[in-house]
Amino acid sequence: MNRKIRENFKLYTGMLISGLMLILAVIGLKFTPYDPNEMDVSSRLAGISMAHVMGCDNFGRDIFSRILAGIGTTMTVAVGTVFIGIVLGTVVGALTGYYGGRVDEILMRFNDAVLAFPALLLALVFISVMGPGKYNVMTALGILFAPGYARIIRGEFLRCRNLDYVQSAKLMGAGDMRIMFVHILPNAFQVMLSTIAIGFNNAVLAEAGMSFLGIGVQPPDPSLGLMLSEAQSYLFVRPGYAICTGIAIVLLILGFSMLSEGLENNA
Amino acid sequence: MNGSFDEKKADTDVILKVSGLNAYYRDRDKAGIFTGNGARKQILKNVSFEIRSGEIVGLVGESGCGKSTLAKCILGIVKDHDGRIEHASTGAQMVFQDPYGSLNPAKTVGWILEEPLRIRGELKDPDRNKKVSEMIHLVGLDDSYLTRRPNELSGGQRQRICIALALMTEPKLIIADEPVSALDVTVQDQILKLLLKLNRELGIAILFISHDLKVVYSVCSKVMVMKSGEIVEQGTDDEIYHDPKHPYTKQLLASVISA
Question: A5 near A262, Cβ under 8 Å?
Fold first, then answer.
């Protein structure tokens, strides 16, 4: 038991940190000590006190409440991004890997083209067309992440499509859709698991980055990237603001990258 | 007069008739926008034979001679062929060589066995379970295997499941493509006995594909010898083993004896 824990140290630590952040995010969506958007001029840039455990920002909003809510927002965006990416990537990867030939050639060249662009640059283009906001960030990032997933799923489908159990299902009279999504897809899931965790990380980073640049989540909605961008103006007056927000982002990413590495070692 | 009557009767017994079959193979992975459809290669040349109900027919030949392609043509997996393939009843089923690849590792044995019934929408839930349980007993296993996954089973157990799976749709013909060559000798024997038992009890015809002449001799009543896509000799097992006509058959037999 002890040896097993040490071998899977990353997996368990990752699970612990991610679990903690997930709980915080769920709490942040439902309950925060103060309304994260409520401004109170009298406590502008207030320091750490019993009333405000992490102090207040330049509008007098409680930083702890905003971090809780920000984790929630960031996680929602990350989950949405990964979900859109997985769905699109699975469809493209399944079709290309299973059918091969021309379908593969055409879809994968398109895929490569999307992959070749720097992600953030392409996200900028999407946002400038669709306008900023939480849901547009999700859609843009989801589309950007899809090609990466498509490659992995395609590889698994390529490997599986000639296996005897697929032939056997064909003989039973199963249709192509049933073979792809009922027979082969569950076998691709093991490989997907660690990729999902890495994708989650990239989504958190990308969302924070985009919000920091002002093209992601829009004020007054709380978001970790947005808060970090505000905090840098008060770095010398109230360094706790930037540090607390930064730690939240670090923990979020650390947890999931450890989780993904642990899953990889485990597989 | 008597003879013609017998012939007529025999004709109704034929469950698979293949005549003048040529099959081709295209390298699909090399196909693309710029490379065209890939090279077309002829695998089977003018193959003709019939299988009667309840027969066990052996198909021997070295690897790469087109045995599996013939099986795939009969099953309709290889579509690029000409010549006639006539089935008397619907759907032959297949037992594959590698029992590790032919069962979906992500599903339970029960799910796998139920799948053909689900696809065909034949029976309702309780009847399906009953039939699955019936089949698994028929191949010498019991209900406790239904909740397990293939990776928990041995090669022999997996091959039994594969046979049960092939039986689920009640075919008249089973094509067994090297069903025992991936198994060790004692398990081979059990699986061969199971196939013989099913042949005897259910009257299922079996096309038994193998490169192992000894195995073929022990189970088959009729043998076909294949070389580079052609059937060079066919006859009863005694004819083939004791009085081979074609030099290739002689060569095959000699290699068994010297081994």
Answer: no
